[in-house]
Amino acid sequence: MAAMTPTSRYTEGAETRQDAQVARGSQVARGSQDARGTGTGTGAPARATARRPRPRIWRGAVLALAGAYFIVPLVASFVFTVHVPGRGITFEAYTELLSADGFTESLLLSLGLAAATIALSLLLAVPALVAVRIGSPRLRPVVEVMCMLPLVVPPIALVTGITTVLRWGPDHLSRTPLYQTFIAVQNENFPVVLVLAYTVLALPFVYRSLDAGLRAVDVPTLVEAARSCGASWPYVVLRVLLPNLRASLAGAGFLTLALVLGEFTIASLLGFRPFAVWIVSISGAQARMSVAVSILSLLITWLLLIALSQAGTTPSTAAAAPATTSRKEP
What is the spatial distance between Cα 107 and Cα 104, in angstroms, rounded to a whole number? Predict the structure, then answer.
């Protein structure tokens, strides 16, 4: 046999080591595949535990209890309105609503008061919060405390103060032009004094909603960019800031509408008759009709709130087209 040179020995040793490494690698690969297939590997129990679906029994139970808490009283109220002992099922309580005295007038009055309150509260809160956010951030705690005060003052105390102010008209201002103003704000067809009172009550909810929206938007950067492009302040507020606050504005209107439609104390003590007061006024004489009106008012309120929520989540399709300038080549 011929003697092997050092070069051939080195090459043969390298090939042997390479074959051994390939064999060990294939064995490790087969072992890992077997571990994944049989679940005997060290990482298999952790992966199996992670993939195990979580039980949803408690979630379903909580949702069922919450649904029963809201639905069972509504169903019981509906059964009370349609079931008359000795006569069976009848829908007279609902068919007589449209012809009931004061139903349409009180409902339209409450909706008009709600619209005016939403407009006035947003007109007061939006410019103030934007100005504080841009120009005077140190005044934010002061504005917050002022807007939260209606949560501390009871409605009965607010009504007492409003009644005292309204008495100044006949007592001290009967010979001045302001006397007619005091009479006008107490008009029964549309009491402006209720709009002012409801605006004060809605300030905490409007402030929280708008403040959350302004915190989520980089207002200084947006304003600076718009102003550097030559936009005026009304354009900045209407076309730059308000589209970014659409969800917050809808939330503020959502809460204000629910507040106005359900408010009873102030309107009743001031002697006005919106929808909530009308429901209580007929409850003694016509119990079934009053319950039917309450169910109908809940449905109307839900429909209006759903409309407001959809208005807040629907993206705006209007987009301002950028101005372009053309330059002719010489």
Answer: 5
Sequence-ordered list of residues with C-beta below 8 angstroms from that of 168, at least 6 positions apart, any chain: 182
C-beta separation of 281 from 317 below 8 A: no
Quote the CA–CA distance of 28 and 215 in Å, as a whole number.
Answer: 55
pLDDT tens digits along 227-270: 888 888 888 888 888 888 888 888 888 889 889 988 888 999 88
CA 140/CA 134 separation, integer angstroms: 11
CA angle, residues 117, 120, 121, in degrees to nearest 5: 80
Residues shown for the chain: 330
110 in Cβ contact with 274 (< 8 Å):
yes
Cα dihedral value 203, 208, 210, 211, nearest 10 = 120
How buried is 130 (Cβ within 10 angstroms: 0-12 exposed, 13-18 middle, 19+ buried)?
buried
CA distances from 92 to 19, 98, 279, 285, 319 (A): 94, 11, 17, 15, 51
What's the pTM value of the predicted model, to 2 decimals?
Answer: 0.70
Task: Identify any residues that bridge with 83 across adjacent strands, giving them in sequence order.
Answer: 89
Angle at alpha carbon of residue 194, lines to 189 and 196, rounded to 5°: 125
Could you report the per-residue pLDDT of 128-161, keeping only the tens digit for each?
Answer: 998 888 888 888 889 899 889 888 888 888 888 8
Contact 143, 128 (CB under 8 A): yes
Beta bridge partners of 88: 84
